[in-house]
Amino acid sequence: MLKHEAEADRVFHALADANRRTVIERLTRGPATVSELAAQLGVTVAATVQHLRVLQDSELVRTEKAGRVRTCQIDPAGLRNAEAWLRRQRTTWERRLDRLDAVLDDQTKEQ
Amino acid sequence: MLKHEAEADRVFHALADANRRTVIERLTRGPATVSELAAQLGVTVAATVQHLRVLQDSELVRTEKAGRVRTCQIDPAGLRNAEAWLRRQRTTWERRLDRLDAVLDDQTKEQ
DNA sequence: CTCATGCTTAAGCATGCACTTAACTTTACG
DNA sequence: CGTAAAGTTAAGTGCATGCTTAAGCATGAG
User: Fold this and answer.
1) Can you give the CATH number for the domain in which A36 is found?
2) Which residues of A touch B (CB under 8 A)?
3) Which of A6, A30, B8, B63 has the CA that lies 20 to 30 A from B14?
4) Which domain holds residue B97?
5) Nearest amino-acid residue to D5, taking CA and C1'
């Protein structure tokens, strides 16, 4: 639970930036180099590298360097973590609503 | 798409804070007052109010004031938005992998 | 009415973050 | 070799963020 919390911290922080989300959206369509991502974002390559570090630490992106060009692609682990946290909250909440419904049903029957 | 992007911005930013996630986890178990949330977080009531403003703006929490006590509960809209964004990315990525598989299958057949 | 309770708001502060520029390393090409 | 391209790293800057304290505003209990 605690390890998961730390992961959730990294992942949601990574997703909280619009430029980093744009990188993810781009990479779901296929791999890209650092320069290509920088061009699409409209920021410097240096800024893009910093974004990529955050995305890698949260397991949202994997990169590999061949020669002098670094190729980036989606790492599904981070997306799965984030989806799992959200689903956990939603199901807990829905289960509670179901219990509430049951209680209300019992009460109406007892009248 | 643009409106959705702005919503994603707010939601993921809200989820990026550990204390705000704790509030959500608490509220999935049932409603709570501002003071109760502050006590659990171990921060001042003032700080908690600020977190609640962020959570309301991202439609993760709804609140209602009765007398001098404000009761907070989950608003499922924000969670749904976040889940939708993540699912959109994941399915786009999986569809691309499927296409890649198809291409590779064709190539092996042609040999 | 008095006063404590629950919340709200404003102001200040330390820290973090996203970006830049600039200097540097490594790799490819002629 | 010389040089341009791709990326890395460091330092600095402005702005946002999360927190505090302090003051203020309703509301409920006695």
Assistant:
1) 1.10.10.10
2) 5, 8-9, 12-13, 15-16, 18, 21, 24-25, 27-30, 74, 76, 79-80, 82-83, 85-87, 89-90, 92-93, 96
3) A30
4) 2-110
5) A68
